[in-house]
Amino acid sequence: MLSFIIAVFASYSALNLAAKISRSRGRTQKWWLVAGSCVMGSGVWSMHFVGMLAFHLNVPVSYDIPITLLSMLCSIVASFIAFQMLLSKGVNWAKFALSGFCMGSGIVAMHYTGMAAMRLPAEIAYDRSYWLLSAAIALVASYVALLLFLRFRDHTEVSWWKWASALVMGLAICGMHFTGMKAADFWCGNPNAIVSTDAGEMNLLLLAGVTITTFFILMVSWGAMFFDRHVLEKMAYSDPLTGLPNRHDLNRLLGEGIDTSKETAVLFIDLDRFKTINDTLGHDIGDMLVQEVGRRLSGYLQDGQKVFRLGGDEFLAVAENCGQALAEELASGILEVVTRPFVLQGNELYITASIGISLAPKHGTDRASLLKTSDTAMYNAKNAGKNRYCVFDDDMDKRLLRRLELEKDMRGASERQEFYVVYQPKWDAQTDTPVGLEALMRWPHPKFGVVSPDEFIPIAEETGLIIPMTRWILEEACRQNKVWLDKGMPSMIVSVNVSVRLFESQHLLYMVEHALRTTGLPARYLELEITESTMLYDVPDMIRQLNGLREIGVRISMDDFGSGYSSLGSLDQIPIDTIKIDQLFVRESDSPSKRAIVGAIIDMALKLHLELVAEGVETREQIDFLRASGCNVMQGYFYGKPMNIEQMDEWLLQNAGRPSGETLV
Q1: Element (H, E) at 611
Q2: Cβ(7)–Cβ(173) under 8 Å?
Q3: Contact indicator for 552, 522 with CB cutoff of 8 Å
Q4: Rounded Cα–Cα distance for residues 288 and 285 (Å)
Q5: CA distances from 573 to 499, 535, 570, 576 (A)
Q6: Are 331 and 357 a contacting pair, CB within 8 Å?
Q7: Where does the MHYT domain start and stop, copy by copy (predicted)?
Q8: 15 — pLDDT class (breaks 50, 70, 90)
């Protein structure tokens, strides 16, 4: 009975180790392979010799130690070879058959080598039929063991299937042993050698060997269990970079939902400008920064508050017994902690964070709802200017759903021909003639009505849809301008806005050449407008692409100059023809400070031999101020709102008699 129990236990331990052998790689896999082979081989060996301890011949019996150890080695080596051959995912039947034969032969060799280690005053003879039957049982047991190895090698959970499989394997292994013993005939030619022995008397050396081997099996199995429950669990639920609990631990915490009897706050924390630090100082500094932020957050939080790292520069804090007021206080403290300077390898870094707050049970009790609402609130905080926190409300959810729906519908809007182009004229106030047009995209959404470009253009840039959309508006604007030129309308340049995503794609020059070639519009009648934010892109590469565009005759204009990112340091290097003064300065031109800024921009442009266009012109006072300052070309509602093709045709006909201002632009 003990031999059967050992066989079952060894089989179950080997099945458990099979999963570790399969999942691990490299040197770790070799260690688990050796451990699994030792457990399987020594388990079969222990079962055999426990059975021998139960076998009594009434003659003195001892065992040759080297041969006994050799019998164990046969079983272990056979198990190692079989497991090694079955490690690959795609196991063919030929390899399986060879593996089973190796393992079965090893068990047979172990059994009969162990029998050969017996030292007794008798001879052993074997019945051929039973011998063959024992060998067949050994082969069947081996094939069953390997089939179960393949079945359970990718499963780590404890299941009744494993215990049932271990019972089958234990029966097969015991069946082989006792069938082999049935095949053995012991002949003692000396009657005086037969002595009366106590059934309970055992070979102490053999008993010690079996005990040590069984203890080894227990230790390996316990070690594997400890490794699973402590080492692997820590690896699975801890972030390797910061040591903080990771997303899996968060899922485990929130998996069963939040206790609705008390308030809980979830704070989604995202670092601002982290990508810039990563790109400029390298990923090593970025990793050190994440580690330091993790230490500060975990050191700041108190009992009942826990911080997780979700990945990248994203963290999440969960605070129990925390209402909105306490959550906002906690968020303010986190912002203050994060904004303290970081000194990393001689670099003094300053960063900020954006935090979104959701409250349970107010905003949900399950993991998905709380993560979604806190993430939505975080993006609202980031869009509001960063370095702040924002508490989720229902309006945010509506805006998020609207954004998702716009993104979904935008993917098919071009195919459904929902987009159309409007044109806003540019006017030379000195000659009183039209000198250009800006092509602007409009989207009459079938559900939401006309969607503002300020809303759908950022979505298009984020998703990459801006590239096919720009390709379409380029071709449409060039085609329409060619139609107007062929009709004898005033010769004007049409401007098209270009996103930084077009420079990143490296396809901008090809797209422009294709649009000009397919429409027949001369390149001098096309202008591309870039924004100052384009300076955040690789400036040398952007200059290279802009030079390529200017070489084919396309004009370049910098839109919204002065509105955000400073490009003064490289303005003289960037190949542009025109600067467009941002409408913010024009709209507030009655302010002395704004007048000073506009005057400085105009003076700088004239000295750099750049042409000027003022945006947002709506009043005669603004026109007089701009002309007095040296800017004559203007764009705004005073001269014309954005118009569709029919309205633009009528507007151009009204101004067709004016002399062309082509040479003035």
Answers
A1: strand 611-615
A2: yes
A3: no
A4: 5
A5: 20, 12, 5, 9
A6: yes
A7: 1-187
A8: low
pLDDT tier for residue 354 given thresholds of 50, 70 and 90: very high
Given a cut of 80, whether residue 14 has pLDDT beyond it is no
Write phi, then psi, for 433 (nearest 5 degrees): -140, 150
Residues listed for the chain: 665
Of 612, 586, 628, 632, nearest in space to 432 by CA: 632
Q: Is 151 exposed, middle or buried (0-12, 13-18, 19+ CB in 10 A)?
A: middle
Q: Tokens at residue 392, please? A: 């989720």
- What are the angstrom distances between the C-alpha of 71 and each of 77, 78, 114? 10, 11, 5
pLDDT at 556 over 90: yes
List own/partner pairs for 604-611 with CB under 8 A and 24 or more apart.
604/571, 605/579, 606/630, 608/571, 608/572, 610/576, 610/577, 610/578, 610/579, 611/577, 611/578, 611/579, 611/665
66 has pLDDT over 70: yes
Q: What is the mean predicted confidence (pLDDT) over 228-248?
A: 71
Q: Measured at the alpha carbon of residue 634, what is the angle toward residues 628 and 637, in degrees to the nearest 5?
A: 120
**pLDDT score for 231:** 54
Q: How many CB atoms lie within 10 A of CB 631?
A: 26
| pLDDT of 293 over the 50 cut | yes
Contact 349, 341 (CB under 8 A): yes
The pLDDT of 362-366, averaged and rounded, is: 81
